[in-house]
UniProtKB/TrEMBL annotation:
<dbReference type="InterPro" id="IPR001810">
    <property type="entry name" value="F-box_dom"/>
</dbReference>
<dbReference type="InterPro" id="IPR036047">
    <property type="entry name" value="F-box-like_dom_sf"/>
</dbReference>
<dbReference type="Pfam" id="PF00646">
    <property type="entry name" value="F-box"/>
</dbReference>
<feature type="domain" description="F-box">
    <location>
        <begin position="15"/>
        <end position="60"/>
    </location>
</feature>
<protein>
    <recommendedName>
        <fullName>F-box domain-containing protein</fullName>
    </recommendedName>
</protein>
Amino acid sequence: MFNTKTCKNTSHPPDSIITIFPPFIIQKILDYVDQFDLVSLSLTCSHLYVLSMEKLYKRITIILDAEFPLKYNGDSREYIRQNGMAYMDSSLIVKYHNLLCFINTVRNNESIFQLIKYFVFDKSYETGPRCGEMLKLTQSSIMDMFRKSDNLNFLHISFVDFTEGIGQFTDFLSLSNVRKKMFKLLITEPCQLTTPFIPPNLTNLFLMLDDNDLQDMDLSMYPYDSFNSLFTLTCSTTKQMGLSILQKIHLSSPNMKLKLKGLTIFHRHKACEGMMDDDDDEELEQDPQTNIDGKLNFDIIESKIDLTYLTHLYLKVDCNEHRDNMCNCYEIFFKKFADFATQHDGLPNLINFEVESYPNMEWLRPHQQMENILTPLGSFIKTLSNLSRLTIDFSTPGFKMFDNSLGLSNYLLNKLNEHLMEAFFLNFFINSDKSPLLKKLTTLQLPDFFTSFVYYKPDFLESLLHTCKCWGCQRVLDVLEADFFDKLIDETVDTTYYMSIGYILGKLQADREVCIPIKEKTFNYGKYPVNKGQPHTLHSNFHTTKEEGGRGCNCHVEKDPLGISEMNIDNLITTYIVHQLAPIIEYLTIMFVNLDNLMIHGIYYERNKELNQLVPIYDSSEYPDCFLDAVQDNIDRGLTPNGPFGNFRGQ
């Protein structure tokens, strides 16, 4: 993919088309050439060598052992040819040995190395006992290599070791040669903003500060006057009190606010128990110098940011005290946001809104979830007049659904969950003439759908996780019952299916991530690779060898190290989940009529124009024929499994 050889210094006749064409014309033509052909062109002549190499190395994106849409049948070369330069405007590296070749190439050729302007090392999963250490060393070596760069505009690495990685990254950003062209800066201490100098091209700033280091920031004076030219701002602290950073900002004039394109706030009122010392919490809440009580406060944002200018808004916000009915700042926060949006034409510039909560060890009961979170959030969302992308992610511990304390029947629990979902989504229909979201939304992401809505099931059967009546789904349950141990959570409930399927749901939710390039030409899941997460999740968590006191297994992991076989149990369960989601997908597409992209609990869907329906693009919606062989007779006879089954909206 990457070649260290240089071509001969070929001279051209004066009337050669290569000589006559201005370089910018050839560069325009190269926009339609894939990275493999760029390598070939670079070997033809010296003139094309320079232009091809500039294009080939300008943007590098690494996502190791990526998963591609099913239509490519795992053919990474064909995927890269059709999508790398065409949609991501980047050269792609998806294999570890190609990454090592790339590193050797740029290390041994200074002129090629200095061509790299954008470098993204996206989320990758390490396989094998030492692969994590190898990835960590490789990332460190890449960081050391780029310390010598003079032309780098952007660098992103999803570190295997996040704690050490952040330290490496902030140290890296303190180098003069690196800073001079970087436009995005992460700082963990205030002094890092000016050490050694503020990047002259700074447009994106990520403040991840210690709460004890917060200080007043006067935007009329150096160095904070640089904030006035920012495009995006992210505010977070070690105690997740991002609003306290905004509180410290003093504007140049009472009539002026920051005009940002993107704003990200991390803020949690009252940390979870065990996440923060009580003494620290009390000090933060009562410190008269900060004038901050820790509550979610919309007025702080509105007083500092011109919200009518925003195109992207990401809020990771929560209030732990509303779980005990001690505080309603979350509700007030979004009510004020909704009132503001209504008064300002629905914030027409805002096209992308993402909201996420913090993980909590205790769940809200359904009525608390509805009253305290979903209703105020929905009331805000429906005021937005031009929203095309929406993400709602309520991160919750998935295995809480084993709780049997409510004592309700499965039927009533299903209806409760169904009404909870409908109450939230139907909220968008109220005053639908003022809620264009139903027609304008094209991308909807619900990463934590099942574990947000499936509560306290006393039995797996008849639940919303068991609605499909096909023999493939029944065979998946039969395999789980026969081959996987049951780790009991509740002595009164058989949790075999919850545990095994719950593990896959957890993997899909936590590990799956689409690699979206820095320069977006489109927003189309089918054009990007996706990190697939840990392979052989069930095997790793449920199977032990006979030497370890277990009964062993027949998974034959060594024959399929990346877990890509269609007969891999993890993949079969993912197909099972796709089947259970079918009625919910239909419900969402009827409501949001122009939905082209949908991600629900880590499974990505894209509208098939021929079928005019959403279909999964990384996961099979059909079971392998060889998997169905054992029940083919029942299928041929038109029989269905005995059940019992759950249902969604009567289906």
